[in-house]
Amino acid sequence: MLRTVAGFGAFGLFWGAWGAILPAIRTESSVSDGQLGLALLMVGLGALASMRFTGYLIDRYGGVVLPVVVASFGACGVLPALADSAVTLSAALFLLGATSGATDVAINATGSDAEAVTGRPLMNLAHGIFSVAVVAASLGSAALRTAGADALPVLGGVGVIITVVAVVVLAPGSRDNLQASTEPKPKRRIEPVLLVFGALCALAYVVENAWQSWSAIHLDTSLNAAPGLASSAPAVFAAAAATGRIAGNALLRRLRPVQLLVAGGALAAVGSIAAAAAGSAWLALIGIGVAGLGTSVCAPTIIGMAGAWAGPERRAGAISTVTTIAYLGFLLGPAAVGAASSAWSLPIALGGVAVLALLVAALGPVAARQPERQPAH
Question: How do residues 255-299 score in pLDDT, each as one tens digit?
């Protein structure tokens, strides 16, 4: 469990700092909203290039993969701060996305394995730890930005912390977790049930990443909020997400996963509409918090369902398939928001996110009706 918590915590530290420092990245790299949206597209492309392969590596070599990909992620997280154009920013974000996708698969596989071994709900709690780390990093980054810090010292400091976590916490005993397969595995097709889980998770990720990536810019450019207040928006979103995930982990002892999924999607839609239509920064922050509370339980619940369906012999591969498909949300979400913002306005683009949240609520029962996987013979 310690490795799961540490892995999710390190992952959250970077993305919390990223959301708060993104306006500075945009300014220092001299890109427009549209160019930033296209550059953010590279995060999803990089993740798509690495995620399924990471699942194969974990199934083949076991838990030793986790510290390697986390350390690589910490190093690549500094690269966007060095970008000075749309081209260099896009290249940096592709490498960031590749290592981020690999880290995402590795920590989710570790958490799902721990959940299966202990027999207790863990995925929502683990994602809640991620959100707590996002809050801490967002607030710290907002304070540093208010004090005049640029992107490099913020992302550089976070990169050092992530690398230390990988070496000190994740590496020791890594060969004792997620044991490697001793037999060659046959080539497998992608089963339809994994497509269903992945598509639903992709919709949830669009909502989540749209607000995580654009909330600070929404307050900064749409509502003319002060830099410190604008940079606090990802922290508000993450604080609500942490609350929702920790509470959701407890609620799963009483509710079926699909019930939690439907409620979360509906609440995310309400918050998204409120934040996009708000006439002041403070009202927008309330809507962002409601959206974070609702969307927080969606992705971890779906990933947990997929891991339970797959069983221990295929867990990492199944999770890598679902999260690869789900990362289409990261691929399309920020880029679509940027494109729609250029065509219309950022509030209209963010208001469209509410429609996708409603789809999560509507399609949740479809995922719940998927037949259980039959064990291999």
Answer: 888 889 899 999 999 999 999 999 899 999 999 999 999 999 998
Mean pLDDT to the nearest integer, 350-359: 91
Under 8 Å between Cβ of 337 and 210: yes
pLDDT in tens, 5-39: 899 999 999 988 987 888 889 888 888 878 887 88
pLDDT confidence bin for 370, thresholds 50/70/90 = low
Question: Does 221 score more than 80 pLDDT?
Answer: yes
Residue in 209, 21, 250 with CA at minimum distance from that of residue 122:
250
CA–CA distance from 277 to each of 222, 273, 286, 347 (Å)?
A: 10, 6, 12, 7
- Please count the CA atoms within 13 angstroms of the CA of 276 that sit on its side-chain side: 23
And the tokens for 369?
A: 């009706």
Question: The tokens of 218 are what?
Answer: 């929404």
CA distance between the termini of the chain: 31
Tell me if 218 sits within 8 A of 111, measured CB to CB: no
Residue 89 CB partners (closer than 8 Å, separation 6+): 25, 29, 31, 36, 39, 80, 83
Structure tokens at 45: 């492309």
How far apart, in whole angstroms, are the C-alpha atoms of residue 365 and residue 69? 34
Q: Under DSSP, is residue 7 helix (H, G, I), strand (E, B) or coil?
A: helix
Residue with tokens 């995922």: 367
- pLDDT tens sequence across 87-119: 999 999 999 999 998 998 899 888 877 777 776
Q: How far apart are CA 239 and CA 237, in angstroms?
A: 6
Residue keyed to tokens 């992302």: 155
pLDDT value at position 110?
84
CA distance 344 to 350: 11
